[in-house]
Structure formats: structure tokens, C-alpha cells
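Inverse folding, one chain.
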């Protein structure tokens, strides 16, 4: 299977899986079949009818989040590909819920979920990138100029099964609904 097709299918599985788990928590949730800029799933709490968008990132191995650093902070590349990292950029939707999904070879029953906000992602990406660049004298190993920034499981471990940040999550708990384990 081609890499692009495999990536698209992985993303589709993640979006539907997140929608299913949200359903177990008392939310009506629907993924979008096309590319909606900024989010992948809309969730509506079944009692309050409060709705919110969800950004879903799914992977089977490697990084959970792949981006470029200039999306998250001011950044420049100077002489000899030396990189400068500046202030975090203002986010349009800092409270947007992100659900990162790690699928395993064992199937969807072994999926892991990391739930946080876009502001959390920004802080983690900038911190990881800054630490990596500092360690290497603000030059990519090999002298390249790539602005690629990633997050791995260890970077977001504190957000694993952090369902409590969802709007009206306590109401779901009060109804006896809990995430699929």
C-alpha cells in the first residue's frame, strides 16, 4: 500500500475511533470525510448540547505530531543554517481540543489516547524544538535547514487518557459513562 494511502487510512481510523470513544462518554461525534481546516471531528454533549471541534492526529509509529516550528513560534534560519527561535505565536484557537491517537499492531483495542489543547501542543513543540536546537548549537545535525518539529509519546505522556478536559466531562461521569479501556 502506498504511503499516502496508508497515512490517509490511518487518519480515517483515528478519527472514527475518537468519535466512537466520545460516544461512550455521552457525546455525539462525527468525523468529516473531507479536509476541514483546523479540526477533524465535531462533538456535541448529549445533555447540554454544547458542541466543540476536535483536532485528531493518528500514528502507528514514530511521531504523534509532525509540524514545522514556524507554525508555533517566530523562527528564522541565518548564515550557516543557524536557527533562531523566538516567542510563541498567538494561537487563533488555543483551547481547541487535540486528541492524539497511537494505534498499535494489535488493533484498535490497544489504541492509546492523549488529550490536550492546542496551547499545550504549542508549548510542547516549542520546548522540544528549542531543547534539540540548543543541544546542537542551533544547527541541525548535518548542517541542514529543516524546520521540522515533532512530538513523541514521551513528550505528551502527561496527557494520556486526559478525558477530563472535555467540556461537560463530569456530566458524562455522573451518568456512569467512562472511556473505553
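Residues assigned per position:
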Amino acid at each position: 500500500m502506498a504511503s499516502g494511502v496508508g497515512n490517509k487510512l490511518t487518519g480515517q481510523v483515528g478519527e472514527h475511533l475518537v468519535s466512537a470513544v466520545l460516544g461512550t462518554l455521552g457525546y455525539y461525534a462525527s468525523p468529516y470525510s473531507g479536509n476541514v481546516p483546523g479540526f477533524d471531528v465535531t462533538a456535541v454533549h448529549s445533555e447540554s448540547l454544547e458542541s466543540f471541534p476536535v483536532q485528531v492526529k493518528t500514528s502507528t509509529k514514530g511521531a504523534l505530531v509532525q509540524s514545522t516550528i514556524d507554525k508555533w513560534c517566530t523562527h528564522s534560519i541565518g548564515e550557516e543554517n543557524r536557527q533562531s527561535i523566538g516567542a510563541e505565536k498567538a494561537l487563533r484557537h488555543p483551547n481547541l481540543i487535540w486528541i492524539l491517537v497511537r494505534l498499535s499492531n494489535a488493533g484498535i483495542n490497544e489504541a492509546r489516547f492523549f488529550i490536550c489543547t492546542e496551547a499545550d501542543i504549542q508549548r510542547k513543540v516549542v520546548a522540544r524544538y528549542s531543547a534539540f536546537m540548543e543541544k546542537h548549537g542551533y544547527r541541525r545535525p548535518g548542517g541542514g535547514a529543516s524546520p521540522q518539529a515533532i512530538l513523541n509519546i514521551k513528550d505528551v505522556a502527561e496527557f494520556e487518557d486526559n478525558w477530563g478536559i472535555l467540556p461537560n466531562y463530569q456530566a458524562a461521569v455522573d451518568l456512569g459513562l467512562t472511556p473505553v479501556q
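Residues 71 and 89 are 8 Å apart (CA to CA). The mean pLDDT is 89.
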